Every structure is written in C-alpha cells, then in structure tokens.
Amino acid sequence: MRLPFARSLTLATAIALIATPAFADRSFTDQMGREVVVADKIERSVVLFHQALDVVAQLDATAQVAGVLVDWDKRLSPGFRKITPEFIDIAKPGELRAVNMESLLELDPDLVIIPHFMDAAVIKQLEDANIPTIALAFADLPESQYGKTDPELEDEKAAYTAGVTGAVELLGEIYGKEEQAEKLVAAMEKGRAIADERTAGIPEEDRTRVYLASSETSTRGAGKYTGLIIEQAGGFNVAGELHGNATVTLEQVLAWNPEVIIVEERSVEAYEAITTKAEWAEIDAVKNGKVYLLPEFVRPNGHPAPESLGLGEAYLGSLFYPELYADLDLEAIVQDYYQTFYRIGYARD
Length: 349
What we know:
Layout: H1 5-19, E1 26-29, E2 35-38, E3 45-47, H2 50-58, E4 65-69, H3 72-75, H4 80-83, E5 91-94, H5 101-106, E6 111-115, H6 120-128, E7 133-136, H7 156-174, H8 178-198, E8 208-213, E9 218-220, H9 225-232, E10 235-237, E11 245-247, H10 250-256, E12 260-263, H11 268-276, H12 284-287, E13 291-293, H13 306-320, H14 330-342
Parallel strand pairs: 3-4, 3-6, 4-5, 6-7, 8-10, 8-12, 12-13
Antiparallel strand pairs: 1-2, 9-11
C-alpha cells in the first residue's frame, strides 16, 4: 500500500533526524597523527599544555575550559594571570607529563588537550577512560619525532610555522572559534612577514651573536624554536652547537662572548645576576648594555606561540637592528594585538 505523501515525508524526516543527530560527533587528526572523535560542542575541556592554553585564551574560548595544568602561570608569564584571572581558582588535575585521573574524572571533561610528549601510559589511561584527547606539538613533526621535546627537524622554519598554524586552526575548529582563529593566523603571518623582509635574510657572517639565558646556568640549543626566533630577528644563537635545554658554565659563555644576551621575562633572577655580578662584566653584551629582559610576548621557548610570530620576531629584530625597524610603531602593533586577541591592553610590570 502506498503511504500518503504527508505521512511519507514525516517518516522520512524522522529517519533522517535519527541518522544525523543535531549534535553529531566530529573527527579530527591531532598533531601525533591520531584520529580523535570529539563532541559537536565543547563545554568542559581540560587543557594540560600551556602553549595550547595561550591559544585558547586568544580564541576567546576560556569559558569552555573546566581545568588547567598545575603550573600554567609559571610556564607562561606573570602577565598571563591578568589576561586569564578565571584560571587562578579553576581545577588543576594534571601537569605536562602526569594526570591525576581521579581529579580529572570528577570534572567530567568532554575533551583533554595534552602535549605530544605526555607520558604514553597516561595517554593510554585517557583512551581507556574514553576521554577524547588531542595531542599538540606546535610543530609539524615526522612520526619518528613524536613525543620528543627536542625534535630533529630538516627545516625548522617550515616545521614550526606549519605546526603553530595547524594548532591554531585545529583548536579554532574544535572550540567553534574558526573566525577568531583565521584572524589570529593572519596576524601571525603579518608579523612573520615583517621579520622576513627586514632581518631574516641577513647573511650568517653579519648576524648578531646572541645568547639566551633561560637561567643563570642554562640555555637552549638546537631542537627548540629558540634558535629560529633568533635567526628570524637577524641573530645567531651562539649555543646552537648544543641540543635542547642545556646547562652551561660561565666559562663557556665567556668563550662565546655574545654581543647580545636575551632573558625571558619569567627569569628575572637570571637577568639581575647577569647585569650585576662582576664575573659577567667582561662579556661584550654586558659591557655594552645589551642585556635585555624580554617582554612576555616574545616567547623564545621550545615551541612557538602565535604571539612569537605575530610580535616576537619583529620585536627581537628591533633590539638587534633598531635602524631596520625605525619606521615601525611596534608599540602600537603590540597594543592592537593584545586588544584583538587578549581583549586587554598590554602593560609591562
């Protein structure tokens, strides 16, 4: 018997609704090549990677976060507490390499974001608990380098650029913030272009010799974004012969005799030691007053951040070669970036 048209339509519509629910799950490939099924709308995510947390803030998705890593503020910068005060009293169920599963499960998360170097046993625990887990590397890594904190990359610039861009776009899709992600990528590309045009192409023999002090006795060598941001700014990382996070002696720094020393904002004690202790006084950078405590947005870390490309590379270039950046109002560029992505003006303490 042939059903009346109206009844046929109603039945067909019902079947279609059952087959394609209003809030269908979505599938994404994370930066370890894992296929992860994620809910249509994220409301209770837990972010255990500070680099990702920074991007989530810039995407204006902090209201969709239910938990963060324990030392999020120390790993970012003191100023980040002003940008995201909502994270101060939020649940903190894990660290970069470890998770308190009991505390995590109490949050009933719909997504967990982790670094690609999270302990493999922890990743298995999350999978066994059926918690959607996205691993981010902020680098386009070959499979052989998954999980390595100091990856060996044939083309660091291409790998880190694709990685940070991919992380922003992926998080934008996951959190439903595609338009903001598109704006953020555009700002990154604009900042990168400034450095590319002015300092990235300076011949190696003419580059400024630069030393990064992550503490008074440590620096970063190859396998980190640190070398690339220095290179983009027209510098040469004197510690590039080392690999990863490295302990150094003062004698080694004296032998390198850098023209410029840069210190991360979170390493104030190192800056004070370098600029006041007599044993550092014979280094050219100290003698010539070229020891710089960097603002938070430079981020010469192991992984690039959006603001590293959008602001940091050009800012660092302006320290090394002020004459090449004299026509730019970098302060205005920084303020515009902060208002656009952090919704707050930049003010250095």
